[in-house]
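Ex. 9. Protein: Cysteine desulfurase.
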Amino acid sequence: MSNASALSSPLSEDEVLRIRNDFPLLATELNGHPLVYLDSGATSQNPLSVMEAEQEYYEQRNAAVHRGAHTLAVAATESYESARSTVASFIGANAEEIVFTSNATEALNLVAYSLSNASLGRGGDAARPYALGPGDSIVVTELEHHANLVPWQELAARTGAEIRYIPTDDDGALLLERAAAVVDGSTKVLAFTHVSNVLGTLTPVAELVGLARAAGALTVLDACQSVPHLPVDVGALDVDFMVFSGHKMLGPTGIGVLYGRSDHLSALPPFLTGGSMITTVTMEGSDYLPPPARFEAGTQRISQAIALESAVNYLAETGMGRIAERGSALGERLVGGLESIDGVRVLGPGTGSERIGLAAFDVDGVHAHDVGQFLNARGIAARVGHHCAQPLHRRLGLTASTRASTYLYTTMEEIDAFLAAVAEVRSYFGVVR
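Predicted C-alpha cells for Cysteine desulfurase:
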C-alpha cells in the first residue's frame, strides 16, 4: 500500500496494536491487571522515538541555542529552529508565528500579560491599540478550563475591564443566541476552547470568530484538546492566537506552544524579560528582538522542543485525519456504552455529536473519586475531579465527574473493559442490588 493510500485508510484495530508496541508504558500492569490507560486528555504517553530524540540531543548536541558560534551551539540552534518549523507546518503557520513556552497555561498568560503591559503604555504606538481599560470587556465561555479563564480574570482586575461569559445550556452546548449580546463593541478579547476538556465536543469556531471580527476583538483559542486529535489549520480557523501543550500530543512535559499572528506578536510588548530577547541593553533601558525571540526570555526549552518535533512527526506520519476518525469512533463507543448503563449520566450531548474520544460521566449515588478508585483497582487509569473546569461542572449540577479519554493507541477492547467495570460500580458500593 502506498503511503498516500495508508494515510487515507481507516486506522484499523491491527494497526493500533502495532502502534502500541511503540509505547513501553502501555505494556505494564496496574494493580495486577493489564494497564488500561484512559487519561490521555490529561497527559498522553510517549513513544520510544520521542524519548530517544530528547536523549540523542543530550548525548550529541547539548549546548545553549542562539548564544554561541561553536559547533555544538550551532547544531543545537539548528535543531531547535527545526522543531519550530515542524510545529509551525503541522498547524499551517509560519515559523516566526510560533513561540515555545513551558505549557499552554504559560502561553495564555503570555498573551494576557502582554495585553496588560500594553495597557500600561509599554510597547509604544504599535501596542496602543491592544490596551484595555474601564469600559472594555473580555469574553470567555462557560466551558473553559481554568487556564483560559483565570488569566483573563486577572487581566480584567489589572485593567478595569469587565469579564463576561457566553453561557451553556443544560447539555453544555454554547448558547450562541446569547453570544451576540455578550460580544459587542466593548469587547477586546474573545477567548474560548476548541474542544471541551470535559465534554469532548467541538465548539462553533467559525461563528465565534465571526462575532469577534464584527466587534473588532482579538480571538484566543485553547486548542489543547484539538491539536492532538484533529487536523488543525490556523489559517482556516482564522484565530489571532492559539495555544496547545506538548504533553497531550505524545510529547514531553515542559513544552507548550503559542501561535500568534505575526502582526500581533510584532506589536505586543514582552511578558518575561531577560537574556536572549534583547537587541541593546543600557543601564537606562532595553530594546527587544522581533518575535518569536522577544517572547522566549532565558534558556529555551531546547530538548523539549526537539522531542515535540519527534511527536509531531509521529502524528503526521500516522495521519491526523485517521487519528480524528479513530477518536470519533472511540468517543461514540464510550458514550453509547455509558448511556446504556443504568444510573450513569453522560455529561454533554449524547451519541451522534461531533466529538473526540473523550467522555465524562456521573454515577448516581457514587462519588467520582470512589468511581476512580474502583476503576484503578481493576487496572483502569481514568481522571476524576472537576478537570479544572469548576464553572462548567457547577452549571451541570455537579462538583466532580469521572472522565475517560482515549488516543491513537487505545483499543476497542480497552473501551469494553472500561464499560464492563463501570457497570459494576453501583452494585459494588451498594447503591443497587
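Check your answer against this statement. The chain has a mean pLDDT of 96.
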